[in-house]
C-alpha cells in the first residue's frame, strides 16, 4: 500500500470519527427540553487538547484583534475561573455567568442556526449555542475556526 493511500485512509477515518462525534453531540442537544439542566458533555482527551491549543493561540491574539468590551469580559471570565486553557467550560457554567450579568441564557443547539433562527430567540433572552459542544480534531485546528 502506498503512502498517499495510507494517508487517504487515515483522513477518512478521522472524518468519520468526527462526523460520528458530531452526531452524538447533536442527539444530546436535540434531547434538551427547556427547563432541564443543560447537558454536561464529557470531552475526549483529543478534544481537550484541541481546546488548549485553540484557547492559548486565541488568547495571544486577543489584544490585537478584539474590542475592549470583549477583552474586559473575557478577563473577568478568566478571573472567575470560568475560562481556562486547562478545561473546556461547561455550557451550564457559561450560561449561569452570562445570565447573572445580562439576563440572557444559553441553550444547546444541534448543528448550525440560520440567520432567521436567532433574532426570535432574543426576545426570550436566549442564545442557542453549539461552539463548546463540537471540538474539531487538533490536526485541523489551525485550518478551521469552528
Automatic annotation (TrEMBL):
<keyword id="KW-0560">Oxidoreductase</keyword>
<dbReference type="GO" id="GO:0006585">
    <property type="term" value="P:dopamine biosynthetic process from tyrosine"/>
</dbReference>
<feature type="domain" description="Biopterin-dependent aromatic amino acid hydroxylase family profile">
    <location>
        <begin position="1"/>
        <end position="146"/>
    </location>
</feature>
<dbReference type="InterPro" id="IPR036329">
    <property type="entry name" value="Aro-AA_hydroxylase_C_sf"/>
</dbReference>
<dbReference type="InterPro" id="IPR019774">
    <property type="entry name" value="Aromatic-AA_hydroxylase_C"/>
</dbReference>
<keyword id="KW-0408">Iron</keyword>
<dbReference type="GO" id="GO:0005737">
    <property type="term" value="C:cytoplasm"/>
</dbReference>
<dbReference type="InterPro" id="IPR036951">
    <property type="entry name" value="ArAA_hydroxylase_sf"/>
</dbReference>
<dbReference type="GO" id="GO:0004511">
    <property type="term" value="F:tyrosine 3-monooxygenase activity"/>
</dbReference>
<keyword id="KW-0479">Metal-binding</keyword>
<keyword id="KW-0503">Monooxygenase</keyword>
<dbReference type="GO" id="GO:0030424">
    <property type="term" value="C:axon"/>
</dbReference>
<dbReference type="GO" id="GO:0005506">
    <property type="term" value="F:iron ion binding"/>
</dbReference>
<dbReference type="InterPro" id="IPR001273">
    <property type="entry name" value="ArAA_hydroxylase"/>
</dbReference>
<protein>
    <submittedName>
        <fullName>BH4_AAA_HYDROXYL_2 domain-containing protein</fullName>
    </submittedName>
</protein>
<dbReference type="Pfam" id="PF00351">
    <property type="entry name" value="Biopterin_H"/>
</dbReference>
<dbReference type="GO" id="GO:0043204">
    <property type="term" value="C:perikaryon"/>
</dbReference>
<comment type="similarity">
    <text>Belongs to the biopterin-dependent aromatic amino acid hydroxylase family.</text>
</comment>
Amino acid at each position: 500500500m502506498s503512502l498517499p493511500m495510507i494517508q487517504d485512509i487515515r483522513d477518512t477515518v478521522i472524518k468519520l470519527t468526527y462526523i460520528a462525534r458530531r452526531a452524538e453531540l447533536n442527539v444530546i442537544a436535540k434531547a434538551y427540553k427547556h427547563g432541564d439542566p443543560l447537558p454536561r458533555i464529557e470531552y475526549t482527551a483529543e478534544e481537550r487538547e484541541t481546546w488548549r491549543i485553540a484557547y492559548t493561540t486565541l488568547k495571544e491574539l486577543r489584544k490585537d484583534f478584539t474590542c475592549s468590551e470583549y477583552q474586559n469580559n473575557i478577563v473577568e471570565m478568566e478571573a472567575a475561573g470560568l475560562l481556562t486553557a486547562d478545561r473546556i467550560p461547561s455550557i451550564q457554567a457559561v450560561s449561569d455567568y452570562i445570565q447573572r450579568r445580562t439576563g440572557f441564557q444559553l441553550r444547546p443547539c444541534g448543528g448550525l442556526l440560520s440567520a432567521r433562527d436567532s433574532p426570535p430567540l432574543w426576545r426570550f433572552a436566549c442564545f442557542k449555542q453549539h461552539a463548546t459542544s463540537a471540538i474539531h480534531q487538533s490536526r485541523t485546528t489551525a485550518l478551521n475556526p469552528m
